[in-house]
Amino acid sequence: MNTLTLERPNAARLQENFSVVQIGDSESLELRGATAQVRFPGTAKYGIYCDSFFLDGKTPWTVSDDAEVLPLACSESDQLVVNWEEVSEEPWKSEFYRLKGLIEDGHLNKAVPVICETGKVLKGDPAQMLMNRTSSGCGRFFLHASQETGMVGVTPERLFSIEGNQLKTAALAGTARREDAARLLTSPKEMNEHRFVTEFIVQALERYGAVDCGSTGILEVGGLAHLSTPITLAFRDRYDWRSGINELISALHPTPAVGVSPRTEETMAELRTMRNALGVPAGFGAPVGYLMEDKCEIFVAIRCLFWRGDRVFLPAGAGIVRESTAERELAELRLKRDAVKQILGLR
Questions:
Q1: Burial of 299 (0-12, 13-18, 19+ CB in 10 A)
Q2: Coil, strand or helix: which one is 335?
Q3: What are the start-end ranges of the H helices in 107-227?
């Protein structure tokens, strides 16, 4: 899997927004003379994309015609020490049972409520200490809005990548420990959850060209196992994906892996109400990525740590379908949060 990382900035750049992105396993792309944010990348050779979950941003692209590819110098840094607070599960349970009611009544097939663990930083600076951790095959990103706020992530999920005339993506839904990976393929609940994601992606892409859906298998990444189905789109003749890049993002995002099924105005309003009720950070599950000449990769910002001053927020979501139980989903949410802590070296 290709990786995406917004490289750790130096201290001088922490005073303002910046645009640095890692590509591949050993190189980083730094934009030079980046313009203010724009709505579309236009004809710019390079760009970095970042929006909110509901694509509310009016100018999600930062672009430039000048960039430098630099070798990535990775090294381990001191751990970030956090005093984690006890997670209040009752608000999540309340939303879980409300959503289960909507599923039972036929209003929803699937929804993804999010729980957020919070804590206080006792030692270290998130912006200075987290970026050079090994990513264990995950896509990695770093966004720093100001000296006091930011986010870092180690996502296993890519919304899509484009190179030439081909778009590649994958349906990724269903989670288990690595040692329990085999049960994913025989679990009605996990396969049902995964099916909603696969069908949505295929239907969303069919308008753009010929879609090929591969076989469902197991993807082991970031210490966890997931159901994964590769999906490839060959764009129809003369389709200009650069001009349509925002349309492609909104056509696919959010998939049912992080949102709702079916995706309608009514169910998206329900999703917004749920996320607001649970205090979900606006960037969690949002698209983030880069454009480099004739190549583009957009990732889904999950497995994230957010910070505001000395407060940190670690959200995780679990897909709820008819067969779900609160106890099993809460166990999955703990598993995902623990995986992020382990990859980022948090304690």
A1: buried
A2: helix
A3: 126-129, 188-205
- With beta carbons less than 8 A apart as the criterion, state whether 148 and 311 touch: no
Rounded to two decimals, the pTM is 0.88
Tell me the C-alpha distance between 299 and 55, whole Å.
14
CA distance 160 to 75: 29
The secondary structure element, H or E, covering residue 101 is helix 90-104
Cβ proximity of 289 and 4 under 8 Å: yes
What does the block give as tokens for 111? 């929804």
The whole-angstrom distance between residue 72's C-alpha and the CA centroid of its chain comes to: 22
Residue numbers in the chain where pLDDT is lower than 50:
1-20, 73-75, 134
Sign of CA dihedral 208, 209, 215, 217: negative
Q: Give the CA angle between residues 249, 253, 259 to the nearest 5°.
A: 175
- CA dihedral for 274, 276, 282, 284, sign (positive or negative): negative
Residues 271-295: tens digit of each pLDDT:
999 999 999 999 999 998 888 888 9
Q: Report how far residue 82's alpha carbon sits from residue 73's, in angstroms, rounded to the nearest whole number.
A: 26
Range list of β-strands (E), 51-157 = 61-64, 66-71, 81-84, 110-111, 114-123, 139-144, 149-155
